[in-house]
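Data card: per-record layout.
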Amino acid sequence: MPHADRSFWGSIAPKKLRFGLPHRHFCVTDSTNARARELVEAGAPHGTVVTAAEQTAGRGRQGRTWTAPPGKALLYSAVLRPLDERHLLLPLSVPIAVCEAAEALAPGIECAIKWPNDIWVDGRKLAGILIEAKPQDSWAVIGVGLNLTIEPGEFPPDLRDTAISLFASTPLTAAEVVNRHLDHWVTAPSADVLDAWRSRDALRGREVSWEDGSGIADGIDDRGHLAVAVAGGDRVLLGAGDVHLRL
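The structure for this 247-residue chain is written out next.
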């Protein structure tokens, strides 16, 4: 895309640092995170949001793809800048915001968080989060994929037993609700973030495995690492990667 004039972005930046202004929507794009990264590199202000009705190359963590039928999921990326000490727990605060937004959109559901950033309802994945940051330039892009009205048969075959939708809302409304909850949680006090995350921990007390071992999930530490109790009474901390439930 052409390089944007920084004075243009400055002229439309909201006085209050809130998510949702400006908001760019695409009928089809490869990845909302890719579009948001382009915008932030061109000088887009904090709070810029990119959404799409359809993605052709949506991405999740660990290089995975994220697919959704057109118009049936919230495909959302938001610019956070500048980064400071309030954002040290961003990987924890964003899932909390998405949980609260989903519960506001579909009253009666209860969301849990599978470390590090999958949102579950009744043991099935409702949403995923991909945060991409460039600390040296003091920005992050927050990517959210939230299933709204995807029917079971519309998921890829390998996801039909493990994915779920809200069966509520529209992408535009969902984006507005996510904006409001991000406004609160990305700068919330660390103690509040840790308490809220721990109250939604989907893995604590359950047997999990990862590439190098297995054990019983034992919550998170104050930096957001997953603690796992392993054989012999030891406790290990996992700072990245994936864990899997052992059923």
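Known properties of this structure: The radius of gyration is 18 Å. The chain has five helices and twelve strands.

See the next section for split statistics.
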